[in-house]
Amino acid sequence: MIFSGTFRNFAFAFAFTAFVPTAHAGMVTLYIIPSPLGLNWDSPKTLVRSAVRNYLTHARLPFGHVNLHLKCSVSWGDPIDFEDVTGSLGTADDPSKRLLFNQGYGLGILFATMPGRLEPQAEALREVRARIQNGNVRFLQFKTDGQACRKMADHLNNFRDQGYDRLYGLANRPLMGEGGVCTTFAESFLEVAGIYTPQIRSAWERVYLVPERLIGGPLTGNFVPARILLLPLRPFWRHRWASSNEPHFSIRILDPEAMIYFIDQSWANGSSFTGETSTPAIPATMGQARGLIIDATSR
What is the SS3 string spanning the chain? Predict the structure, then answer.
C-alpha cells in the first residue's frame, strides 16, 4: 500500500475509509475544489478578469482543482492492492505570465501546452484534509468492480510511466497521450472504467468558440497584447465568444464549479440519477464536505 503510517494517524482518516468498498472491488473519488472567487466564462473579457482576480488572491489553487483518490482491493483471479491520491498541476516555473504579457499569446494561452506534474500524495492529502474539515470541497465517489479498478490503476501507472504528466494543457486529451489538466485527467479515469455517465458529462462539459482575433502565439502567429483582454475597449463585440460563422478555434473545457453546482443541486433534490440504467447518486458527507456516492459496480 502506498499510504504510510502517518496518514493512518490523521484525525480525518475516517473521511477516506467511511465508504471503503468491500473486498474484490474498487473505488474512485474525485475531490472538486472551487477557485477562491469563481471564474466567469460569460465572455473572454470576464474570463480573463476573473482569472486575474483569483490569481491575485495568492491562493495555492487560484483556478480550482480536482484531486483523485483511487483505491482497489484484491480481486479474485486478478490480484491488485492499490491506493493513490493525486491530481494534475502546472509546475513552479509556470510560463503563463510570460506568454501573456511578453509573447502576446492572448487567448492562445487556452491552447498552450506547459510544464506539468502529478501532485505528490502527501501534498494532495494535506489539501484534501484541510478542505474536508472546513467543507470547502465537494466529492463524487464511484464504487466499481475489480476489473474497472484494475483498468484505472493501469491507466494511472501508464500516465506516469509515459511522461504524460509533464504535459499540462487545457485543450490536451489524456487518453490521446497529450497530457491534460486536473479535470480532464480525472475524467479520463471515468472513461477507462466505463462509468462516465451522460448526466455527469453534460453537467461538467462546456464548449467555447474562441475568436481567432484574440488568439496569439504559434496557433495563429499573431501577437495579441494583454491589454486587449483587460481594458474596457470598444466596441463590445470584440470581447464576446465567436459565432460559428466567424473565424474561431473551439475549446472544450470541464468546469469544476459547474460540477459543484451539479452536486449541490442533487443535494437540494435529495438524489439524482446518473445514467441510462437510472443508477442513483446518493447524497453523503465526509467531515464537513458534501458529495454524491454512485454505485457503478454493474456498469
Answer: CCCCHHHHCCCCCHHHHCCCCCCCEEEEEEEEECCCCCCCCCCHHHHHHHHHHHHCCCCCCCCCEEEEEEEECCECCECCCEEEEECEEECCCCCHHHHHHCCCEEHHHHHCCEEEEECCHHHHHHHHHHHHHHCCCEEEEEEEEHHHHHHHHHHHHHHHHCCHHHEECCCCCHHHCCCECHHHHHHHHHHHHCCCCHHHHHHHEEEEEEEHHHECCCCCCCCECHHHHHCCCCCHHHHCCCCCCCCEEEEEEECHHHHHHHHHHHHHHCCEECCCCCCEEEEEEECCEEEEEEECCCC
Q: Which three cell numbers stand for residue 15?
A: 473521511
Cell numbers found for residue 84: 493513490
* Helix-helix angle 146-161:182-193, to 10 degrees: 140
CB neighbour list of residue 93: distance below 8 Å, 6 or more residues apart: 115
Which residues in 122-155 are b (16+ Cβ under 10 Å) and which e?
Answer: ebbbebbbebbbeeebbbbbbbbbbebbbbbbeb
Does position 185 have pLDDT exceeding 50, yes or no? Answer: yes
Type of residue at 56: L
Is the bond preceding 235 in cis, omega lying within 30 degrees of 0? yes
φ, ψ dihedrals at 119, nearest 5°: -65, 125
pLDDT tens digits for 66-109? 999 999 886 555 556 778 888 998 888 889 889 998 999 999 99
- What pTM did the predictor assign? 0.87
Per-residue pLDDT reduced to its tens digit, 260-273: 999 999 898 876 65
Q: Which residue has the cell 484574440?
A: 214
The span from the first CA to the last CA of the chain, in angstroms, equals 27
Pairing verdict, β 138-145 and 289-295: parallel
CA 61 to mean position of chain CA atoms? 12
